[in-house]
Write a structure and sequence with these properties.
seven-stranded mixed β-sheet, disordered N terminus, 15% strand, alpha/beta, single chain
């Protein structure tokens, strides 16, 4: 077991089985039971029942719906309120499908993993590896992130692979993630930069999702759909430090054909610019382009515009979302 993985999963993987029988874990066991049941469904049924699950959550207890509405108002001001609300509703449906897809991703062996997909651009990964360079696979937080990772892993068997991750707070889920999702990967904690650099210098392929607004040392306020957002600038620093190629991966769930369409794009040369803001802006623009192709499939329940400093309003506070038509968009390091 990798040392980094031992460190982060010690509370989950090494905890006694008896401790997970405590009543506080009963809902978690129920959730895992649902995932195991979903693994037995055909993929079209996963989509059908997943959408129904998402609709139930939207209607009965739409947690973070306010966050999604604020995000969509800022990112799609040209759409009417009714159109944006339909995107919120569809986003819950996509989250429901994503939840049940997790059963296929965790509990189906490779021989029975039959989620339909079309994959293009794998030659970009192999070309970088053939050149003796490490690869940073930039996978934004779309609702099909887990399925994308599982499919890509299958096509890269034989290559060293790592995942930069943040373990869940729930110890039972952390243990199950370790057993099912991370069994084939070196798991690197989100804040373990040294292990990440070592993995890249070993020419590992690193799965990397840096598109959430975490205020860290290497972050800056960079436009995202024209709105200032705390954005990771460490990606370009890592690329220049290790000569890694940053390859974006974008996936769209085509429900008409019950198929995932995965596109690995060519290297982002902007990530090797000496100014890290150039790479950060290019990353946000690439993600914007992908979102516009399937806007309901992005993770809008995340507070993408949080922690921007006292000079900008807390847009998630009721009544505080600024008018997109009058806002100013600074590009500067995020305040500490």
């Amino acid at each position: 077991m990798h040392q980094a993985l031992q460190y982060d999963f010690s509370m989950g993987e090494n905890a006694s089985v008896e401790s997970f029988y405590h009543p506080r874990y009963w809902p978690s066991w129920l959730g895992l039971g649902v995932l195991r049941a979903a693994a037995r469904l055909s993929y079209p049924d996963v989509v059908t029942y997943g959408r129904a699950l998402g609709e139930l959550v939207y209607q009965a207890f739409p947690f973070r719906a306010h966050v999604a509405r604020v995000n969509l108002r800022l990112c799609f001001p040209e759409r009417s309120e009714a159109e944006r609300e339909e995107l919120v509703r569809e986003n819950y449906a996509q989250m429901g499908v994503s939840a049940l897809e997790l059963g296929h991703n965790w509990y189906r062996p490779d021989a029975r993993f039959d989620v339909p997909y079309t994959l293009t651009g794998l030659e970009h990964v192999r070309a970088v590896q053939a050149a003796g360079r490490p690869v940073l696979l930039l996978i934004p937080h779309f609702t099909n992130l887990e399925t994308t990772g599982r499919i890509i892993q299958q096509h890269l068997v034989g290559y060293p692979q790592s995942l930069l991750y943040r373990p869940p707070n729930n110890r039972l889920y952390a243990r199950e993630m370790h057993r099912k999702r991370l069994a084939r990967l070196e798991a690197i904690p989100m804040n373990d930069v040294k292990s990440l650099i070592r993995a890249l210098k070993r020419q590992s392929i690193v799965f990397y999702a840096p598109d959430q607004g975490r205020k860290i040392k290497d972050s800056a306020l960079v436009p995202f759909f024209g709105e200032p957002a705390v954005t990771n600038t460490a990606t370009s620093r890592l690329a220049r430090m290790t000569n890694a190629a940053v390859l974006p991966i974008f996936t769209r769930r085509d429900e008409a054909e019950h198929r995932h369409r995965i596109d690995i794009q060519p290297e982002m040369l902007e990530m090797h610019d000496p100014d890290p803001l150039v790479g950060a802006l290019a990353m946000n623009q690439r993600i914007e382009e992908a979102i516009r192709q399937a806007p309901a499939q992005y993770l809008w329940l995340h507070k993408r515009f949080k922690r921007r400093g006292p000079e900008l309003p807390d847009v998630y506070k009721r009544g505080m979302a600024p008018s997109p038509e009058t806002r100013e968009v600074p590009t500067q390091p995020a305040s500490a």
